[in-house]
Give the backbone structure.
Amino acid sequence: MIGDSIENGPLLTDLAFAYRLLGADKGGRECLFLLHGSGVDETTLVPLARRIAPGVTLVAVRGRIPQEDGFRWFERIDPTRFEQKSILAETAAFAAFAREAASRHGLDLASTTFLGYSNGANLVSSLMLLHPGIVRRAALLRPMPVLDHVPATDLAGTRTLIIAGASDETYGPFAPALVTLLSRHQSEVDARILPSGHEIGDPDAAIVRHWLAGSAASP
């Protein structure tokens, strides 16, 4: 893990999830909540986010479930099966955290994009389906559906970008099911496939950057 570097700002522990707040002093409305993948920490998505949207406020959040030398967002049974009670509990806690962080730091959730990778992306999609109204825009990198039971949620007015990896043998086969699920719940979904595995990089950043520019221009 990168740790408490000056570049990534201090680790704040005043709310239910530890997080770093970057760029809030610049006064812009745009904001990115960053939810990392498994076994790492909140600093790992910061470089990608800065390539996607230089100058916006970043809320880099740390998952609460320890894994190896890092963290994850909820407990798993195996790589593609997850503990449902853990998903429900951690998603509810994150919903409260997002509202509290926005209130405390003067952030506008309507102008916020939730950028999640792998396990972090799965937390974001669960947040959308279980606690509608918090997420208006979501960029999900290498996600899969994780909920065994999905409520009758209306996601009309939300925009979702899903980027899968063509060679991602673990999550890639499940990405179409998530596209179908969110579309069925009325989210406007833009689905992309990159010639990559589970790893992410510059091609992802370019797609998210262009998608955000189009999303901001849409009514």
Notes: The chain has one domain: 19-217.
